[in-house]
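Hi F.,

I've been meaning to write this up properly since the lab meeting, where we talked about keeping a consistent format for the predictions we share between groups. The idea is simple: the sequence comes first, exactly as it goes in, then the structure tokens exactly as they come out, then a line or two of notes. No screenshots and no reformatting. I'm using this chain as the first example so we have something concrete to point to.
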Amino acid sequence: MKSYAIGHTTIQAPIPSGFGPHTTAREALGNRNLEGIVAIVTGGYSGIGLETSRVLAEAGATVIVPARTPDKAKAAVAGIPRLELETLDLMDPDSIDNFADRFLAAGRPLDILINSAGIMAAPLMRDARGYESQFATNHLGHFQLTARLWPALLQAKSARVVAVSSRGHRLGGVDLDDPNFDRRTYDKWKAYGQSKSANVLFAVELDKRGSAQGVRAFAAHPGLVMTDLSRHLSEEETGRPKQINDEQEKPAPDPEADQFKTVEQGAATSVWCATSDQLDGMGGVYCEDVDISEAVPADSEKGTGVRPWAIDPDIAQRLWELSEKLVGVKFTI
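Output, unedited:
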């Protein structure tokens, strides 16, 4: 049964799209020509972000990829057409402002913003403000970035923002009273789950506020993809052995593990959310396996589906207001 937009609200239920977990990003994009489209992909030089950047650029889009160390990212993006490397550190508010100022000064509209960068299950670290690193990087940094780039999103007339989340959101919601673990005992997985729930809630509230002005927002779960995101995990936590290369440890590929996706498949849902005309007039939903996901109960034992605390409109609004306070940026829409 198709999910139709009602006003500016989209039902959290599969369309269905006709795609599935094995769809690749190129297949999700189809034959769309993205010439003239400007996209920003955070984390676009590694893992699913790199594949997302590649597919968009090869379809004709101009893709800006911000990185903490652009020189190190050069080798990864070499040969990708129409790709521009920039400098950005999501844990540094001044770096976010400087990047946004440079982009806005160029006068270009921003058609697509894919907030793909992130960290997972990191040991307790804090930024200069004392904010817990996963919440600061995965949510607050992208919140501030989107707020600062808002004029360029409006200029595009019809823009999309994709918040890359995870099924890890099922590990727990956002503790609005203690999001930075100032009083709670730190747990790396609770912190990760909180940040991924925050990504979904951000898409819910951004779409509610921006849809009337032509900016739609989606949250996307890539699927289980073994990339450098898992660098903090042990073999016991990943369930898969690691192999050593010259630079760092990476999980060894296991083609028999059907639950895991390739990087090409992992980038598919983000690309679909950013470009598909199947989603015209829709937004504010959590997507996975290249379709809108189903909403499931809080006690669901499924690996798929979105939990209620990640799509609760009241929590989304409260998180938005808290985020404005924490980053010191009024998100005026």
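Notes:
DSSP finds eleven helices and 14 strands in the chain.
Residues 66 and 86 are 4 Å apart (CA to CA).

If this format works for you, I'll send the rest the same way.

G.
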